[in-house]
Amino acid sequence: MVKKIIGILGCGWLGYDLALKLKSQKYNVRGTSRNSEKLKKLTEKGIESFHVDLQENKIYGDIQGFLEGLDILVIDIPPGLRKNQESDFAYRIKMFLRFVQVYEIGKVIFISSTSVFEDREDIPSYDENSLPNATDNNGIKITAAEQVVQEMIDKPVIIRPCGLIGEDRHPIKYLAGRKEVKNPDAPVNLVTRDHVNSLIFKVITGELNVFVIHAVSEPHESREEYYQKAAKDFGLESPRFELNSRSLGKKIVSGL
What is the pTM of this model? Predict the structure, then answer.
């Protein structure tokens, strides 16, 4: 049986790990990056690499070569809103999908974010049936990108990871020792990179056949409780939380 050709648009921290896992399962894998060193690493791992860069008004690189013949496409590029709050993420996705529409790609998986949901004092729970309701700039723009994908692609799969963590990446490293950290009572919404990539793999193999997936793997402990434990585990100074104001938050849950 011939293995499918899978393309990953954006081989960052999550996408690169996914590419390696798929390659280990004998899939034909293509990956993109804007970084020449990352492209070199992909090539060294036997992954066909392509320079593709989605700028505000133009896409640079060999986008046709990347897309031609793909069976499955995973879109995993950051919105870039931390560096540029005015960036039109939805428009950049739309530019790219105009190319995607030319090719007969069987399945498109879009890696979104739970930022599409609003934090509130009543700590609402959001599952895969919940409608995005973000009111902040980041959440609104990611929601708009999701809508573009759903409008332009037939039956795409939207995966919304919570905050990503892994062996070399954990928020306690940035919170350690900090004072007056907000929202002590809000539940933690985190997911390991391995869990997200296991979900993507199940979509690729057909084991999961749904159109919206929430990726969450860590317990919904309060931020104060969770990060105090994490600080101890990492041998770091515990953060100190602001206890005199009400917490804003949300609980991301999954029906899968």
Answer: 0.95
